[in-house]
Amino acid sequence: MLESINKNIKILYVEDDEIARENGVEYLENYFENIYEASDALSALKLYAKHQPHIIITDIQMPKLNGLEFVQRIRKTDSKTQVIVISAFSDKDYLLKAIELQLVKYLIKPIKESELKQALISCIESIENDTSNIIALSEVCTFDIFNQTLLQNGDIIKLRTKEIDFLTLLLKNKNRYVTYSEIENNVWNDSAMSKDALKTLVKNIKTKIPKELILNLSGTGYKIDL
Questions:
Q1: CA 76 remoteness from chain centre
Q2: SS3 of 58, please?
Q3: 92-100 and 67-75 are packed helices; what angle lies between their axes, rounded to 10 degrees?
Q4: What distance in Å separates the CA atoms of residue 178 and residue 174, rounded to the nearest whole number?
Q5: Does the pLDDT value for residue 62 go beyond 60?
Q6: pLDDT grade for 156, boundaries at 50, 70 and 90
Q7: How far lies 29's CA from each of 3, 34, 105, 220, in Å?
Q8: pLDDT band at 207 (very low <50, low <70, confident <90, very high)
Q9: Chain centroid offset of residue 44 CA
Q10: Which residues on neighbouring strands pair with residue 136, listed in sequence order?
């Protein structure tokens, strides 16, 4: 699974030690194309907000804000992004805190290449099984189901409530056509859905995401083609 360069997965690597960070990035470049690096957690938070990485690798002992506090801030709104924590300490309190923050792996320095590789494989498996809340709609467009946020080139695109509900419904059922009755029940809830209202909704969504993603099967419903 890590035998070739992965062009779809975005990784954020956070480490205040410059040499360790350079070595880490050099290793990751063997397997990933999109790598962002930060020397402290505050800078990392800005990169996280801008790039919405799929995997975060972070040291614990850092100035300004430690690694666990950094992850804790992310976990307030994002429970799915894959996180690997690296530490020079095997302190029990750190380990318990790491488990609470839903980390993929807690690695103790010096890190063994085999352990890091296995942790990365675990992350990718979770992402490919669609257990990540961030779904790539194109190379520059992502939708965060958990936070109901659409990002285009790092900018938040405003969505109406029905647009969020419609997009979420299609993404959660992306392997099939979602019927008109399902759309009415999930997007319009207790109110009636007219054909014109649905057409207008789809037309508006297509101006905000790649329009070719949404397919219609006459008499059946809609599907998102990722």
A1: 14
A2: strand
A3: 20
A4: 8
A5: yes
A6: confident
A7: 12, 8, 20, 45
A8: very high
A9: 15
A10: 142
Helix (H) or strand (E) holding 43: helix 41-51
At position 3, the amino acid (one-letter code) is E
In terms of C-beta distances under 8 Å and separation of at least 24 residues, what long-range contacts does 89-98 make, across chains too?
Answer: 89/60, 89/61, 94/60, 94/68, 97/68, 98/68
Token pair, residue 134, equals 């961030």
Per the CB < 8 A criterion, the answer to whether 38 and 11 are in contact is: no
What's the longest Cα–Cα distance across the chain?
Answer: 62
Give me the residue label for tokens 């799929």.
54
Tokens of 38: 């930060």
pTM: 0.57
Measured CA angle at 93 (ends 146, 52), to 5 deg: 25
Q: Average pLDDT of 200-222?
A: 95
Which is nearest to 19 in space by CA: 109, 120, 128? 109
The contacts found for 122-125 with CB under 8 angstroms, 24 or more apart, are 122/82, 123/54, 123/55, 123/82, 123/84, 124/1, 124/2, 124/6, 124/9, 124/55, 125/1
Q: What is the DSSP letter of 132?
A: S
